[in-house]
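Researcher: Quick one. two chains, 277 residues in total.
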Amino acid sequence: MTDGRKAPWRISQAEAVQMDILPGWYATRGRRRLLAATGAFSLGLAWAMAGVVWVAGPDEGARWIVLTLLAVMLVIYLPAVTLMNVATRGMTALTERNLDERQVGERLRATAVAHRLMTRLLAALACLTLVVGLLRGREHMVPGSTLLYLSLAVALTHFVLPLIVSCWRMPDPPPDDEDEDERSSSAGGGAAGAPGIGA
Amino acid sequence: MSSEEVHNRIPMLRAERGVSRKELATALGVHYQTIGYLERGEYSPSLYLALRIAEYFEVPMEVVFSLKPFPRLGSEPK
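Model:
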């Protein structure tokens, strides 16, 4: 896809994340953290799917468990990711040109934290594979279907972890201008008669 | 981070000039929440953004930003 074709999508994406969709769900830090935890839980379900496929193998019962987990994961994942993107105002989704210097800095910090977490996760996965290999002997092979689901879980985690981290870290945004204006007007109409600063 | 805190007079200048947070953000090309974080001292701007803020209000930079807290109105010696 060329840059020109992507432009309308980027514009609509930038506009969409500025809309207050269900603001009550991410209004406070506690709720944003709950949202981030929900997103992490949906990722956990993706890892659980890989685990079920690995342990149970190509079994009819396991297939239904995996399909159920996939359905539950999607039902949780899609709204959680959408709301996290709105809560962070697209900090990890938008291109750099749509962000200001504070947002770019926050995104870099979130990406750095997510990178550290992902490294630990991959190290844990490598250790687990090694231990299972040692316990089951050299003949043990990880089935292809397990690898597929593991790849899906790793890719999804790699994709969403920066968003989860930025949603978790985000401080409470400042109150809207309207609230501030009401406060200043009720306090006597501001400093219109005061001597100008620097004048 | 507290030792690197930069104090500013953006809320005062904004109130004095009757400029809303969104208007200032649009003029500076930043998100309106960034102005709020700046005002609350939760974000220290880059030199470029600090210069642009001073330029917008047409005041020297030291009028807007300081490493020490600005004296409260009425607390200055007569």
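Chain A is about 70% helix and 0% strand.
Researcher: Thanks, that's what I needed.
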